[in-house]
Amino acid sequence: MLSLLFLVSTIIVSVTADGYNCAGNYLINPPLDLNEPYYYPEGWREGMEPAKYAGSQMCNWQINVPEGLYATVTFYKNTESESGINCVYPNGQQEYIEDKELNPYIFTTPQFQVNLRVSDKQGEFSFKVVWSTCKIEVR
């Protein structure tokens, strides 16, 4: 029994050390309660170091921003070298996400994308999305 417990704990430590695999494409919609942010990866929160990702993967998050809302996104990224992590605005303009750049990005309807395309090197990347009501005053 003790050897089984040791084996399971070794596997858990190994997976954590290797970093997360983001597993392809994600479609993210705002929550019903706009006070609840979306965090990636699951279990990561602000105040923690960015989560480690495994190397050699490609992932895409399509994050919907319905009419009447806007999204504020803060990216948390640390990498050893230039990595292929970028965001794409609704008009198609791409912007690479810099290390330790904590200024939030603002996105409007209908959606934006986050792309992660990395080589065999590990890095750290997490993000938080908050949707808010867009209040436009017409005079």
TrEMBL record:
Highest rank taxon of the organism: Eukaryota
InterPro entries xrefs: CUB-like_dom (IPR003366), Sperma_CUB_dom_sf (IPR035914)
* Upper classification of the organism: Eukaryota, Metazoa, Ecdysozoa, Nematoda, Chromadorea
GO annotation terms (biological process): innate immune response
Say if the entry is tagged with keyword RNA-binding. Answer: no
Does the keyword section mention Acetylation?
Answer: no
- From the UniProt annotation, give the residues forming the signal peptide: 1-17
Q: What protein name is recorded for this chain? A: CUB-like domain-containing protein
Parts of the chain that traverse the membrane: none
Describe the location of the CUB-like domain by residue ranges. Answer: 17-133
- Swiss-Prot/TrEMBL keywords: Signal
- Origin organism is Caenorhabditis remanei
